[in-house]
Specification:
heterodimer; A: alpha/beta; five-stranded parallel beta sheet; B: Rossmann fold; Rossmann fold; 2 domains; globular
């Protein structure tokens, strides 16, 4: 197994600020917007963006929820490994809100498909956007594209994109791992 | 993630501690789901479940059916009273006929102990025991422990007394297995005639005095007298039973500490428990019912994930 650094801590920081500014451009005061981090890996990115928007760009209040999509996946009984659920933490309804789904890596698009179904359990959003840190090009199984992307990469199927966060792994780094 | 060590849920006896932990963790997620405004997930869209009840049930049947529907499974219901069983069909024939309609899982209640185990050896489907005679009622014991864990934080180290008709109770046996497996201390309390001989071999103590048992415990699980399973008289009169083993507000208030009161239902108000106790804030009877749906969703989900 070999791995190379795709993005360093400094590069990630610049990208996070750019993504925050792009969100700001479209959502201004975030009054009718809900950021939703996808479990288990998108929650760190969502948390970080909320922090930057509040601390550095003076946004007063942002609704942030965490959504687990395990029970909505289409590979139940088809994957070799049992699916492990994480907790959903949504203390608001998304009825008529502008929802931004947030995940670290966009690969086949199946998780996002599941999230689009899952989100309906919390109301009918006015619109749904997608923000991802890493967009793996040419690997989609479904017609799903992000509205905001940190970095687009061409990775072959044998490779895996691994995102490390200070909160979880003790460093902000993104690796391309050759399995 | 871990998976269940069993293909069927026939009794708590066949589970290990990790299985119970996994069921509880999964139930936590489902409890969140059933408290949403839209209480349904699409996980089991391609699973069909038959609920086969050879014995009456209200709570358990509704709870299973609701759990199955909230997981988006297709559900068929069968009650022995209105079926060909009355015409002399055997259990295996009945179930195989149902299975040939492409059913993946069978939830069964049956008056004979071991009916689920028997079935699991002869038919090709996941079997969930929803009560087999006076043997086991595993989902009830799981939801009871889950409710204790929710109320008191943990089951390990807690003192639980099961009061009443232990002899005829599948709830008692499953609860004893489940509580012991999780490290709780268990006593059973009731008249001599309703306590099975040699029950101490399961690691429980017998206490015939209700007040002593209540003073000892953190949780009291009050059971119903199962008149339908009694062919002889086990105590002189219901009135005398109530005087000796009925839980009322006066006894509850006389204890030094606030204990948790449980009941698996159906309640015979005024016999094993008075209304003011059943409806008091110490009672978690309705929480048990709510948790029953989450627990059954977890059990069905975990067993369904093993169907290939």
């Amino acid at each position: 197994m070999s791995q190379k650094v795709l993005l360093s801590s400094k590069e990630i920081n610049i990208i996070l600020h750019r993504l925050a500014c792009q969100l700001l451009e479209n959502h201004t005061d975030f009054k009718d917007t809900a950021l939703i981090g996808m479990q288990p890996r998108g929650i760190f990115l969502a948390d970080r963006l909320k922090k930057i928007l509040i601390e550095e760009y003076g946004v007063k209040k942002i609704d942030l929820g965490f959504l687990d999509i395990t029970f909505y996946r289409d590979d139940f009984r088809r994957s070799d490994k049992p699916l492990e659920a994480s907790s959903t933490n949504m203390d608001f309804l998304v009825e008529n809100k502008k929802v931004v789904l947030i995940d670290d890596v966009l690969y086949t698009g199946r998780s996002i498909r599941a999230a689009l179904t899952a989100i309906q359990s919390f109301g009918r959003p006015a619109e749904i956007e997608l923000l991802v840190l890493i967009d793996r090009r040419f690997s989609r199984h479904l017609p799903i594209q992000p509205n905001y992307r940190g970095r687009q990469v061409d990775a072959i199927n044998e490779e895996k994109v691994k995102v490390h966060w200070i909160e979880n792994e003790g460093e902000d780094t993104i690796y391309l791992v050759n399995k | 993630m871990a998976e269940l060590s069993v293909k069927h849920l026939l009794g708590i006896k066949y589970l290990n501690e990790a299985d119970i932990d996994l069921i509880f963790e999964t139930a936590d997620h489902f409890k969140e789901v059933i408290n949403r405004s839209i209480k349904k997930v699409p996980s089991l869209r391609d699973i069909t479940i038959a609920n086969i009840f050879f014995e009456n049930s209200t709570r358990t049947k509704l709870s299973f059916e609701l759990a199955e529907k909230r997981l988006s499974a297709d559900v068929i219901n069968f009650s022995a009273g209105q079926s060909s069983v009355k015409k002399g069909e055997t259990l295996i024939d009945t179930v195989n006929n149902i299975l040939s309609m492409k059913v993946d899982m069978v939830v069964m209640r049956h008056p004979n102990p071991g009916a689920g185990i028997f079935l699991s050896k002869h038919v090709n489907a996941s079997i969930v025991n929803a009560g087999d005679g006076a043997h086991e009622h595993p989902t009830q014991a799981l939801l009871d422990s889950y409710s204790i864990r929710e109320k008191l934080g943990d089951v390990a180290g807690k003192k639980v007394v099961i009061v009443g008709d232990i002899l005829h109770s599948r709830v008692a046996l499953s609860n004893i297995f489940a509580l012991k497996l999780q490290g709780a201390e268990v006593k059973v309390c009731g008249p001599h005639t309703l306590i099975p001989k040699h029950i101490e071999t399961l690691g429980v103590e017998v206490e015939n005095n209700l007040l002593k048992a209540l003073n000892w415990c953190d949780v009291a699980n009050m059971l119903r007298i199962q008149n339908e399973r009694m062919e002889i008289s086990y105590f002189p009169t219901t009135r005398e039973y109530t005087q000796q083993y009925g839980l009322n507000k006066k006894i509850l208030d006389s204890l030094d500490k606030e204990i948790v009161v449980m009941h698996p239902g159906p309640i015979n108000r005024g016999v094993e428990i008075t209304s003011d106790v059943a409806d008091s804030k110490q009672s978690i009877i309705l929480n048990q019912v709510e948790n029953g749906v989450a627990i059954r969703m977890a059990v069905i989900y975990l067993l369904a994930s093993k169907i290939k």
